[in-house]
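Lecture 7 notes: from sequence to structure.

We start with a single chain of 353 residues. Read the sequence below before looking at the structure.
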Amino acid sequence: MSLFTVTDYDKKVYEEQLRDYLPNKIIDIHTHVWKGAPKPQNPNTPKRTVTWPSLVAAENKIEDIMEAYKLYFPDKEVTPLIFASKVRDLETCYERNAYISHAAKVSGYPALYYSHPLQTADEVEREIFRNGFLGIKSYLSLSPAYIPGKEVRILDFFPPHQLEMINRNGLMVMLHIPRDARFRDPVNIAQIRYICETYPNIRLVIAHVGRAYCQCDVGDAFEQLKDYTDLYYDFTANTSAYVFERLLENVSPDKILFGSDEPIVRMRMRRIEENNTYINLVPPGLYGDPSQDPHLREVSEEEGKKLTFFMYEEILAMKEATTKLGLGADVVEKLFYSNAKKLLDELQSKVRA
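Now the structure, written as tokens:
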């Protein structure tokens, strides 16, 4: 049985709107691969994440992601940058990274190490060079439990001792910023600037366009960060054509990277903005009780039949933005392939030296 169903409507969207827009080779810079459902979370652990992404896939083995790309893009060659997910403590950090190391070896895909802030720089560096990881990814939920979720800072889960090591080696940091105000948050902006100035050799990727999923999330972030021309941005799991336009207007097209957040982009959905937040419109009954997450809302059964993959919705939004700005196939090829290829080639030369 297929990993997931591709409907006639999905095929129509791909064939009529996406196939000729996309280059023949694609690099997906932001994907999660893991084996086995996560262990139950300690009820005393502070809740710092939304619920809806966990409703799409209980696991995403390396074989699954390979199959997924054949279903999404049957005539394209797709290479993902893979890293772990569902990391809740040091134990699962080690388990998930061990599987990523295995997955990278059997697939040939590039990978990042999922770091925990309690790890020493020496330990993280040893694991990077032992396994050929190209840098690190971490998450705000690994910050010390005593820090209120709304007050988590970037340096709470990417501590300076780890950043110093990554800077020394010139490797990547994949940054999912914290805090309710997202990309416009002054603490986030201040710490991004601090990292750029203190650790200039880090290849810093701002994931999800700084989690700017709605128009209000951008603020003046691009203006404040305009001098840091080595910053990269991925537009992972984002469907805001407005945000993409601002990104393309303010950032060199050489520094923008396609990412999906696979497997959550298997979700059938369409995203709207409402009261300065995002709502994922989903088919009735497909993801359980929508009241479990304020970002979910069911539509009618008829409307649900016209909902395609989150993956396609993201790319359609970028197509809208590039078309509106008059950007041609050369720029699209950079966004979806050659920018990432150049970056990954640079990083691989460092860990294999």
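Residues 2 and 257 are 29 Å apart (CA to CA). Keep this in mind for problem set 3.
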